[in-house]
Amino acid sequence: MEMLSIEKELQENAYPGRGIIIGRTPDGKKAVTAYFIMGRSENSRNRVFVEEGRGIRTQAFDPSKLTDPSLIIYAPVRVLGNKTIVTNGDQTDTIYEGMDKQLTFEQSLRCREFEPDAPNYTPRISGVLHIENGKYSYAMSILKSDNGNPEACNRYTFAYENAIAGEGHFIHTYKCDGNPLPSFEGEPKRVAMSDDMEAFAEMLWNSLNEDNKVSLFVRYIDIETGKEETKIVNKNK
Question: pTM above 0.70?
Answer without folding.
Answer: yes
